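Subject: two folds for Thursday's group meeting

Dear M.,

Sorry for the delay on this. The cluster queue was jammed most of the week, so I only got both jobs back this morning. I'm pasting them in the order they finished. Each block is the input sequence followed by the predicted structure tokens. Could you check whether the formatting survives your parser before we put anything on slides? The first protein is the one we discussed after the seminar.
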Amino acid sequence: MTKENNALVRVENLVKHFPITQGIVVQRQVGAVKAVDGLSFNIKQGETLGLVGESGCGKSTTGRAILQLHEPTSGHVYYKDEDLTIASASTLRKLRRDIQIIFQDPYASLNPRMTIGDIIGEPLEVHNIGTPKERRERVQELLHLVGLNPFFIKRYPHEFSGGQRQRIGVARALALNPEFIVCDEPISALDVSVQAQVVNLLEELQEKFNLTYLFIAHDLSMVRHISDRIAVMYLGKLVELADRAELFNNKMHPYTIALLSAVPIPDPIKERQRKRIILLGDVPSPANPPSGCRFHTRCPIAEELCKQEDPPFEEKQPGHWAACHFVKKAQEYME
């Protein structure tokens, strides 16, 4: 993917394989789980890029590899002009102020033995920012910012609901005034009634602080609501990337077409008329992915070429990328 001047984050051929080992005393590698296998995309300043796909396709691993929480097997991740994959530990430590993450599970990501004042203030302490009084004031300011009572700083995580805990996670991510935040399925563990509140909060914060998000999620309707562009992932690879409206109105990849056919439409007449695509079989193992196009084992329009050649991820139309040998055939299949 070509370099864009306004890209805050650039990912080039990112690969993350987890080794499979055997042996008790002497362990030897006998294979690898190909969680992320050659991703390339840009995230522009101030935008939200939605990343969707089935469970186990490598979405969370992608987010963590971008932040170097998982060391990539190969490839490059550029934040502005800094290559994070070869940056020194001291350089990465400084860049941690600008790149943060909101974790998926608000119950597991907060230390139950720490007060929320200590949890939110920990990044300030780690980076030696401000005096104890200034940190406490900053924590209270952050709590107010995410819609919580500033006087709750002495309470513990178990005293809060799931939605409130996720707001605490958002406050912690904002503590150092970052520019880029990976939102790793931040609403999937929450009640439906609370999900919209958290998403609205993220949108308000983005507008207020000009934040840039990589928003990882399963819920396509929520991704459509919050994202500027959407990337679709299948078994470690990107299969489609386009603007939100373009992706929903002119989908090109058979997997994207099948995925979006499962999204309910609030119009009963249109819902009855549209074609529903049910994919057969299970997702192959990332430890032993199929040859050629990884989707060909479940694709309703697959041909012999799909089994032999992996389609390149290329720009089919301006700003619309897809990895499919038979885009027109896929679109005709939907009609």
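Second protein, same layout:
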Amino acid sequence: MTTDRQVKDMLIAKANALIAASYNLELIEQRLIFLAIIEARESGLGIGANDPLTVHASSYAENFDVTIHGAYSALKEAVELLFKRQFSYESTTAKGKKEYIKTRWVSEIRYIPDEAVVKLIFAPSIVPLITRLEEQFTTYELAQVSKLSSKYSTRLYELLMQWKSVGKTPVYEVNDFRNKLGVGINEYKLTANFKARVLDLAVAQINECTDISLEYSQTKKGRSIFGYSFTFKKNQKTSKAIENKHDPDVDLFIKMTDKQRHLFSNKLSELPDMNKYSQGTESYAQFAVRIAEMLKDQEKFKELLPYLKKVGFNT
């Protein structure tokens, strides 16, 4: 059972230039990058041009509410797609001259089947765009995009967050807007198809699954639609965490981060007291993956809490 507890307060910061470069990424690639950035922040190690970041398939499954098998398949596909991706962006030299940079997203990426993890190293040009937290960066919670099942919904949410201080966007000209959402030049050419399959779908998902309420307007020139603009406001929702805060065990369950879950599942796999949960044919690594799955369930977490304390879980 997956709730917002696993993803709440996980922050992603991406340069707006980097967001613009992600127009054509598929949803699974976007999600892989999200989880890699979170890993860098939670580990405290940051992002470097030589330091691999690890993404667990169980983390993908947990945060995006898919099965472990589905997560394995998604990560394998994301590995192949992301390694081939290239993009260009514009910067300014020290002399104030424009320069155009072409780079890959990652310089190295690995999939390790026996451990069900992906390890990736961001390309050197990407590192400063992700790590420098300046005013032009867009920051948002993974919890707000984890339930979006369309890449267009995710892209639109990112675009809106660039205007979160004012709650409204400028008018995006139709072709520019299609490009920003990653809609191909030959896709959904008819306005009715574009609205039904892309725009209206994205707006509906954002309204249902995120922390904002969103509306859009059409700007016309003559009888043709020239562009779209958006207004939005914060939509406060009651979280399960608040509802259950009176239960200290539930509090611990909610506060346990994904990184802690993986860390302590590895420790528990080697704890003699856990032998009764072990399956004779599995390795320690396989047992740890299964324990990590168990810790996602509130009742199993309570059951394993005494063992967690034995291996140093800070209560």
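Two things I noticed about the second structure. The first helix runs from residue 16 to 21. The two ends are 23 Å apart (CA to CA).

Cheers,
T.
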